[in-house]
Design brief:
Blueprint (H helix, E strand, L loop, with lengths): L1 E6 L19 H9 L6 E7 L20 E4 L2 E4 L25 E5 L22 H7 L4 E6 L2 H15 L4 E5 L8 H13 L3 E3 L1 H6 L1
Parallel strand pairs: 1-2, 1-6, 2-5, 6-7, 7-8
Antiparallel strand pairs: 3-4
InterPro entries: Isochorismatase-like_dom (IPR000868), Isochorismatase-like_sf (IPR036380), Isochorismatase_Nicotinamidase (IPR052347)
Keywords: Hydrolase, Metal-binding, Pyridine nucleotide biosynthesis
EC number: 3.5.1.19
């Protein structure tokens, strides 16, 4: 059973959004080709879904600016611009994404006091989204991961997949993902590789 996990391909992380990833919109047509390829038995999408005033927002911390390091619930936290607030256009999946073939959309980051990069659990590794349980219930053996952003939500989702679903082969689709910084992307790819995650391209999927 082969599954595709599309991480946070939302307006907020694309040009014009509140936390745009450089060229983030370019992953959409690649993701659509993967969705429509027939190579996957199951397709899941995650969605950042923050309440207004979330604790990871710089605006919730007087004197803090976006992209400064601060604290949240006593732990180090990157301060982000307000983004992907529940019910806003910023939080919607990209309108060009082929959503008709997505089997499950799961939302994350709803706890005001904890950020949630991974599609599997929050950053405290405490509250689970239920994704691992769902994939295991579907007897998934192979999981491909891509989306936004490589050096944050995609990386942590891929790493959690390897830890929480031992025995499942996890692959990162590099050209179907974009990151916050080139340095962050390079470090994320190396970290994923060190944890046994295969680094592939969409062409390898489509030609496989």
């Amino acid at each position: 059973m082969k599954a595709l996990l599309l991480v946070d391909i939302q307006n907020g992380f694309c040009p014009g959004g509140n936390l745009p990833v450089l060229d983030g919109h370019e992953v959409v047509p690649i993701a659509n080709r993967l969705i429509e390829s027939g190579k996957y038995d199951l397709i899941v999408a995650s969605q950042d879904w923050h309440p207004a005033g979330h604790g990871s927002f710089a605006s919730s911390h007087p004197g803090k600016q976006p992209f400064e390091l601060g604290t949240l619930s006593g732990k180090p936290q990157m301060m982000w611009p307000d983004h992907c607030v529940q019910g806003t256009t910023d939080a919607e999946l990209h309108p060009d994404l082929k959503m008709g073939k997505i089997d499950l959309i799961l939302q994350k980051g709803e706890n005001h006091s904890v950020d949630s990069y991974s599609a599997f659990r929050d950053n405290d590794q405490d509250a689970l989204t239920g994704l691992a349980h769902f994939l295991e219930g579907q007897e998934v053996t192979d999981l491909d991961v891509c989306g936004l952003a490589t050096d944050y939500c995609v990386k942590f989702s891929a790493l959690d997949a390897t830890e929480m679903m031992p025995g499942v082969r996890v692959r990162f689709i590099e050209d179907a993902s974009r990151g916050i910084s080139p340095e962050g992307v390079a470090a994320a790819i190396e970290e994923m590789r060190e944890h046994g995650i295969d680094i592939i391209t969409s062409r390898q999927v489509l030609d496989g």
